[in-house]
Amino acid sequence: MALSVPEPSFGRLVIDDDRSDGYWVETFHFSSDERVPGIIASGLVSGNVEFLDNPLATEEGADSQSTGFAVVVCDLTGNGLTDVVICHDYGPFMLECNMAGGWISWLENPGRDKLGSGMWKQRKIGRWPAMHRLSAGHFTQRTEWQREIIDDEHFTVIHEISTVKYVSEGDPMAYIATLDPFHGIAACVYTQIKKGPQASQWKRHVLDVYGTPTQLQKTGDGPGHYVVCADFDGDGDDEFILSLFGSMNRDDSGETIKVNSKNFGGIGKLDIISVRYNVARYYEEPQPIITLHLNEFAEANANGAREAIVPTLWDSEGLVYLARPSDVRVAQRLPLIEVAHYALSVEIHPKGSKIELEQGEGIKVLYGSVSDGGNIRSAVNADPFPQITPVASNHTMLSTDDESGTILLRIVPIGKADTWRTAQEVPVKTTFDTSRFGINFPELQFKKVEELWWGSGFKGVDFYNLSGFSFRFLDDKTHIAHLQFWAAGTNVNCGVHNHIGAMFQEVHICLSPGTQNGGMSRLQGDKYAADEEQSFEHIPIPRLYEHGGMWHRDTNGNPIRGKNNVITYPWHKWQGGSGPNVDVWMAVEFNPNVGS
């Protein structure tokens, strides 16, 4: 079966049309905790270096230099704010470079509270005539650098540099993508055909050729100027984007000279930012605009989700591997299932980020914590049973923990709040998609408990189970939590138990209170006898409410551990009420050894 390759599609939005020239655009995360990047833009003649903020695109002057050229961004001081390093005073172009120029300057990020207060503080680092490209890295050492001529036969003009680890096993399937020769006409890839410290050989493959008949004479004025490799469709393999300028036989728009790719849209897909080329006496586009091209063909969260959220199938259930929130910079989301007119998804949110909630939406934190108007929510920090707490919030903006971020379940209403006579009538739709990994995930559905391997004691009981999803950390596969769903009819006793031998902390959230007063019941006393009439403390659970943790706690509120270090519980059950329909609820079982 042939693989389906999505057709590339990008939108086009002009975000800056008031420029005198255009040469460079660079992705710019203003600080280490910002969710989406802005842009640093500069022109070769005007010398203006500008910060375009995302999403308002408010222009902020960073500095003004004579013939600003290349830009590199990095946090030079380690304070979490991204600085700008620029080389400038290049001259009009290579053949007339300024022999007194080639300056490298550091523009220090003043912080958001100082934006609008003038140019950023400039510190000159050094100079060399015709300084053309920069790269940042941890290069400092006390001894003179060793140097080796890698190639003195095939290159006449070096136009780009990249920072790589020299001592490395490398990628045996790697390739180098180029637009060559200088200001070239040919899109090429180079693949390694012979490997060795003294005998490495690469083969050149020409993929396509661009340019007018004059440019095809290879006189150095071809349309090719820049190439970017990235995984734009989210399939795990890199594609590359070519930046071409001027009218040619392939593209008459004269669109770009410099492109940059990043998650500008904030939904986990790689977008493209471009600037039209305008350099006096060389090539001058009449409108040197900056354009944002939003990725329209990759699935939302596809790029990055491969690393941050990985869905798979395990023992007929969904298994979700999740990156630690402290390791991600952009929120990620994966749909799971729709049950009883609620759509559930799992989300990762970076530390110190904001989470928007629509009215009526609920959340259940799986890891980390969020704040909603002064109240801290974590996985199991609710007041103990018999307290109940809404999982919805009156606030439309939540804040994640500054140290750990959060992983949560989002519960979104997709229809009217309703009840159903039977479990078979409860609407269920599996939205958990593993197809891009070549896995066919089954349609989950409610099954009668008496048909399950452990359910022989529930013969003839109106009691159903739908299981479910497990969540684990991606890095070390540590179990975080398990999610499953239940349904039970009028006056159904769902089984008295105390989780002896089970290692989890469990809470239940009601999705549909069909029996009207169904909910959690706790035995009043320590000993349970199935053949005796015993008294229970019962708390009805309303729609989108959770009950407080049922486990035993010490005087400090910490869970008490028993034999084999398990969490100890009183005897308890879900008890159906007297109403005519079925209760539908979800159970979340947390690993007590994972810090919240």
Write the layout of secondary structure elements.
Blueprint (H helix, E strand, L loop, with lengths): L12 E4 L7 E5 L9 E5 L5 E5 L6 E6 L6 E4 L8 E6 L14 E6 L12 E7 L47 E6 L5 E9 L6 E9 L14 E7 L8 E6 L13 E5 L8 E5 L2 E2 L3 E2 L5 E4 L8 H7 E6 L2 E6 L9 E8 L2 E8 L4 E3 L5 E11 L2 E4 L9 E3 L6 E4 L5 E8 L14 E3 L16 E2 L14 E11 L5 E10 L16 E9 L5 E5 L12 E5 L4 E3 L24 E4 L7 E8 L6
Parallel strand pairs: 21-32
Antiparallel strand pairs: 1-19, 2-3, 3-4, 4-5, 6-7, 7-8, 8-9, 10-11, 11-12, 13-14, 15-16, 16-19, 17-18, 20-21, 22-23, 22-30, 23-29, 24-28, 25-26, 25-28, 25-29, 27-37, 31-32, 32-33, 33-39, 34-39, 35-36, 35-38
Provide a descriptive summary of the structure in words.
The chain is an all-beta fold and 596 residues long. The protein has two domains: 12-139 and 150-295, no CATH class; 309-590, Jelly Rolls (Sandwich), CATH 2.60.120. The chain has one helix spanning 302-308, and strands spanning 13-16, 24-28, 38-42, 48-52, 59-64, 71-74, 83-88, 103-108, 121-127, 175-180, 186-194, 201-209, 224-230, 239-244, 258-262, 271-275, 278-279, 283-284, 290-293, 309-314, 317-322, 332-339, 342-349, 354-356, 362-372, 375-378, 388-390, 397-400, 406-413, 428-430, 447-448, 463-473, 479-488, 505-513, 519-523, 536-540, 545-547, 572-575, 583-590. Strands 22, 23, 24, 25, 26, 28, 29 and 30 form an eight-stranded antiparallel β-sheet that branches. Strands 20, 21, 31, 32, 33, 34 and 39 form a seven-stranded mixed β-sheet that branches. The longest helix is centred in the middle third of the chain and has 7 residues, at 302-308. Residues 250-255 and 302-306 have low confidence and may be disordered.
